[in-house]
Amino acid sequence: MTEVVQTADITRFQSTSVCDDIALDEGPGKYRIGLIVLSNDYTVERDFMNMRPNDDVAIFTTRIANTPDCNVNTLRKMASRIADAAELLVPEGRLDTVAYACTSGSVVIGYEAISDHIKAVRPEAACITPITASLAALDTFGAQKLAVLTPYVDEVNAVIADYLQTAGKQICAFSSFRIEDNEEMAALTGEAIFKAAVKSDRPETDALFISCTAIRAVEVVDRIEQALGKPVVTANQAMFWQALRAAGCEDKVEGYGTLLRQF
Questions:
Q1: Exposed site from 13, 155, 241, 247, fewest CB < 10 Å?
Q2: Which CATH number fits the domain 132-235, given the four candidates 2.60.40.10, 3.40.50.12500, 3.40.190.10, 3.60.15.10?
Q3: Nearest CA-CA partner of 59 in 83, 29, 85, 79
Q4: Domain extents in the chain
Q5: How do the residues of the chain divide into helix, strand and coil, expressed in percent and rounded to 5?
Q6: Which Pfam families match (predicted)?
Q7: pTM confidence score
Q8: Is the predicted pLDDT of residue 90 greater than 90, yes or no?
């Protein structure tokens, strides 16, 4: 037997009005950061939320399709998907900045191309990439001689090194975990990153740069600075710092390195 479902007569339904109580503000987030995260990233959203100085900073996230392997070819293929991802970030809402969260991708694709894709759908938002933010952070410290630590295979390391040198930085030491699989990058422990960072430094360097948004360097950046006695810039830390400042928030943040604590 077929059960007959009784439906409400919507033409006669009437709720109790509370229209007199409507009060509107500008919505959540005095400072609004849009974040384009790789589909297989485990780290960036957590890092951004942990580094927020207060609830005035709102993070809105979307994802962009990516493969398990991190190499120049797969990184380049993300370019055509950036605008579609950015378009999903609170489409009718205000955003102060949009950050594309892939360091190696931002080097391979290039800042101008990434900015063009984002500006096509969010023309009002400042475009942030981890590599340009990291360079700005290093310049803030006056750091020219660098030690560099990455998780990448050498095909990707080569383009990172070339980018830094073209930007006028001197690389005194370049160390890598030589990992291609994004899942393995995300599984690197904070302790492993800390030990590698200490080994990677050289006495003559001005700062240590830790590349890659996928690894959990932010959680140990304070420890590394204390061990080395010099500034440490990580991709997620620098990207958040620049996004925060571009959004107009000047609040300082404790626990995530000198960059956020002082600048």
A1: 13
A2: 3.40.50.12500
A3: 29
A4: 31-129+238-252, 132-235
A5: 45, 15, 40
A6: Amdase (PF17645)
A7: 0.93
A8: yes
